[in-house]
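Appendix C: a fully annotated inverse folding record. The material below is reproduced so that readers can follow the format used throughout the book. The structure is listed first as tokens, followed by the designed sequence.
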């Protein structure tokens, strides 16, 4: 699954803290649980999540999950 946007992008200094519980950026009332729980759930099913972003260009989120038989 690929999710793309053409938003402002994610600054490089934020990337090390993405998907860490209680880390929130740019939201005054953010809890920092959205990406953390997404990663936790995806990995529970042996999947991966990868985020690539460029300032002023946008962000791409790739979610890969194994096929079921």
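Designed amino acids, in order:
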């Amino acid at each position: 699954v690929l999710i793309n946007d053409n938003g402002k992008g994610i600054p490089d200094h934020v990337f090390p803290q993405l998907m860490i519980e209680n880390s929130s950026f740019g939201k005054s009332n953010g809890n920092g649980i959205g990406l953390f729980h997404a990663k936790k759930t995806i990995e529970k099913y042996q999947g991966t999540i990868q985020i690539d972003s460029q300032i002023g260009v946008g962000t791409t989120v790739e979610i890969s999950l194994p096929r079921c038989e």
